[in-house]
C-alpha cells in the first residue's frame, strides 16, 4: 500500500514542531526524484507542483494540503530524542502504532496520501501544500502569503475519521501565562511529599475535550486547593504537568515540602475530587521522604498564585454546538504548567466555532490572571472555518464515497483547529473539505491509525481525482 509504505519511511524522519527541516528535505527529495517542481516560502512552508495526468490532466488545479510537524509525546518510561531518533513502529490488530510515543499519523498519513495522488494515472494538476508548525499555533499557515498556492479547490487531509467529510472547524488561541520565580530563603521542612499522576488518557484538546477526560494540571490544582483549605503548612519545591498546548495533560508531578510530618501524612492520603467522564483510572503515586533542615522552595505568594491559577483557569466545555454527539461550541484546555527560564509558564488553549467567542474567552482568562502576580500574552489566534452551503468538492466526495462503500458519508463540523480557515482568508471563495483515515488518541503515546482505512482513503482519492 503506497501511502502506508510512504508513511512508514516518514516515521524514520524526526519532525517536531519548529524543527521540520529534516522532513521538508525528505519531501523535497521525493519531489526531485519524481520530477516535480517545488518552492519554499520564508516561513518554511513547501509547495510541490505536479502536472495533471490522464483523463483529468487539463482540469483545474486541486490542492492537497497537510502539515509537516507532529506532536512529540512519550510515556514517562520511554527514552527518545525526538530531534534525532526515529520512531519505533509496529502493527497490531489492524493498527499501526508506535512504542511508547506519539505516532505522527497526525498528519504524516495525510501527507503520504497527498503523494499517493500524484502517482495515479488520472488526476488534475496538483499542488501539494505542506505547512510548518501546525501543532503549535498554525504559524506556518498564518505567515503564508496570498498567491503561494493557486488552486481554488483544496482537500485538507488532516481529519481523522473515514466516512466523515469535515465541513468546518473551530478557531482558537493560546494564552501564555508566566509567573516569575520567587523563593523562600530558609523554609524549615521535615518531610518531602512527591505526587505523580498516572493512568490518564489525555488526548486532543479539541477532539476529546467533550468526553470530560481528566487533566493532570487541574488535578494538581485540586490537590493544592484541598491542602490549603485544610490549613497545611507547606511549600512547592517543583511542579510540572502536560506538554503540547493542544493535548489534554496526561502526566503530572509535584514535590512539596511540609513543616509538620503529620500534615504531610494527611496530605498524602487526600485524593482528587475531580471525576472522569471517560472511565479513566486515576492513580496518584505518593512518596514521603524525611528531609529536615532549611530549604529554598517557591515562596508563599507563588504557592497562592499557582493554586489559584490552576484551580480557576477554565477547563472543559463552556457550551455545546451539539451535545448529543458531544460536539462543543466553545472549550478551553489548561494544557501545561512548566518551569521555563526561571519562571512558571502555564498554557491555556481555547477554541470556538463562533469567532465572536474568542475575545470573550480571552477576556475571561485575562480577568483571572489579573488577580494574581502573573502576566499573560496571546500566542496569536487562528480563524474558524465556517461551513459553506454549497461545495463541489463535498458533493463529489459524498457521491464517490457512497458509490465505493455503499453508504453516504457524514458531513460534520469539528471542534478542532484546522488550517482551513486560513485558506479562505488567503484565497476568498476557495472550496475546501477535510477528510482522512481513522486515527485514535491523537497527541498521546497510544496514537494509532487503522491500516485498512488508509486503503479506503486511497480508493476514495483515486476515484475523486479521476472525476475532479
From TrEMBL:
Coiled coil: none annotated. One of its GO terms (molecular function) is metal ion binding. It is an enzyme of class 3 (hydrolase). It comes from the Bacteria. It catalyses: Hydrolysis of dipeptides, preferentially hydrophobic dipeptides including prolyl amino acids. Belongs to the peptidase M20C family. This is Cytosol non-specific dipeptidase. Keywords: Cobalt, Hydrolase, Metal-binding, Metalloprotease, Protease, Zinc. GO terms for biological process: proteolysis. SUPFAM superfamilies: Zn-dependent exopeptidases. Its EC number is 3.4.13.18. GO terms for cellular component: cytosol. Its cofactor is Co(2+); Zn(2+). InterPro entries: Peptidase_M20 (IPR002933), Peptidase_M20C (IPR001160). Signal peptide: none annotated.
